[in-house]
Amino acid sequence: QLPYSEYENVKDTDSDLIIVGFSQLGSESDWRTANTKSIQRALSKENGFSLIYSNGRQKQENQIKDVRSFIFQEVDYIVIAPETETGWDTVLEEAKEAGIPVIIVDRMIDTADDTLYAAYVGTDKYEEGKKAGLWLEKYLKEQESKDKSSLKKKTYNIAVLEGTLNSTAQIGRSKGFEEIAKTHKEWKILAQESGEFTKAKGKEVMAKYLQEFDDIDILLSQNDDMTFGAIEAIQEDSLTCGVDGKIKIISFDGVSEAFDRMEEGLINVDIECNPLQGQLIANIIERLEKGEVVNKFSYMDEKVFEAENAAAERIGRSY
Ligand code: GZL
């Protein structure tokens, strides 16, 4: 008897619905909430699906248990947003054995056998990291051209709040930013530690940075929730951040509360990571159901939002 993990709804017996088991990695951030809602809305009964949702609570072992339960229930498709990249081959081989197509969403898995998944739907975190580096290049050039004094800084001290280690978001954003940073000897990365994509941990690590370093110029925070915590730590330390503040902040995701902070001038720029992947996932499943060939990789459109344009840019956004 395979272990069951708790389910929000039981497998539906209505046979003409497409039954999908969805292993979501957790509920750690506003971004994750928007991602879950998008997938639940798209894979709904009125759209012809019966969705079995499970929350892995940030632990891969929970997700693997959930995927095994989906296999046991003989679902038609399995959708996985993997907490971290490695360690998926065994359970995906079991799904393949059972003839159940798997769709990887949001973060990616690290596997030598790409027949273990039918498609990937998500975002390009490496590009997001590069966009952050390119924005910082542009920003510093603008500042230097304004500041004619010879006192302009020779070194820019950068503190980094990393996301969950070994997650695609952390790997890609770090790699993309470093690709640009390594071409600037005047950029100095003071520290990089994981804030685990949560507000609480982000605040804790930022408070530690503020104790350790007395001259942080830039914070690169790999998601908005850690940024919200970091802003609290900065303000509790009677320091300033953002457009007119001492510590310039580059954040990732672009959730609603981040637009509030950009309108207040507390975040300089937010690199969008688009969570609204539900419709694309539903389309791919419907095409697989008809035996059509689908793209192996599908990427969401993403923008870069600067504080100065935040009020206009947020019009019409749903999260
Ligand atoms: C990015 C996604 C990340 C978000 C975080 O694709 O995996 O996980 O940036 C979330 O907010 O926790």
Automatic annotation (TrEMBL):
Keywords: Signal. GO terms for cellular component: cell envelope. It comes from Anaerocolumna chitinilytica. The keyword Iron does not apply. It holds the Pfam family Peripla_BP_4. It is found in: Cell envelope. One of its GO terms (molecular function) is carbohydrate binding. InterPro entries: Peripla_BP_I (IPR028082), SBP_2_dom (IPR025997). This is LacI family transcriptional regulator. Belongs to the bacterial solute-binding protein 2 family. It comes from the Bacteria. Residues 21-270 form the Periplasmic binding protein domain. The keyword Ligase does not apply. Its main location: other.
